[in-house]
Amino acid sequence: MSEVIKLHEPKFENSSWNFEIDQVNLYAFWTNAFSKEECQTIINIAKDKGLIKGKTKGESDVRDSKISWLYPVDNMDWVFRRVTDITLNLNERFFKFDLFGLNEGFQFTNYQAPSGKYGKHLDRGMNMPVRKLSISIQLTNPDEYEGGELNIYEEDKPITMDKTQGTLIIFPSYVLHEVMPVTKGERNSLVTWVTGKQFK
What we know:
Layout: E1 4-8, E2 27-30, H1 36-49, E3 52-53, E4 63-64, E5 66-70, H2 77-95, E6 99-102, E7 106-112, E8 117-121, E9 130-138, E10 145-147, E11 150-154, E12 157-160, E13 168-172, E14 177-179, E15 182-196
Antiparallel strand pairs: 1-2, 2-13, 3-5, 4-8, 5-7, 6-15, 7-15, 8-14, 9-13, 9-15, 10-15, 11-12, 11-14
């Protein structure tokens, strides 16, 4: 596995100063978390299990994708172990959240041209325990599709994430983000959420 190569510190502006400010990084990512061959193995496991239409609460046109839920029993224990190791490393260095673990399994997501997308949204819901960190792993070679960028928002400014195959991207689940429409080919990703106690 490669070392983490980048983090992003949010801008901070204020007109008063009453307490010490504890800033949290907007995102970080880890290149080569998975090899090309390992990415293809994950894709094969998910597609062999079968895909269903991805759903959202509210507007039906926000999301156009197919998904498959994957768990350790789906020959995914090695993925859970590796993502856990990377997550603990990145959390300690850049977020320092109080975490429980990967309690929801992995969601494999398939976005197909010409309209595969996921509009602006937050990952935090009403679930207990609370989603604290969101993880997205780029499974598809970016030369095989067009569009499909994962954008994370800093206020109203979108920041496009690295599309390199095998890259793991991590960010707080309360951060606004989106997947732009895939205009050619298909993009596959593996996402999950790290849970913990309520934020204080």
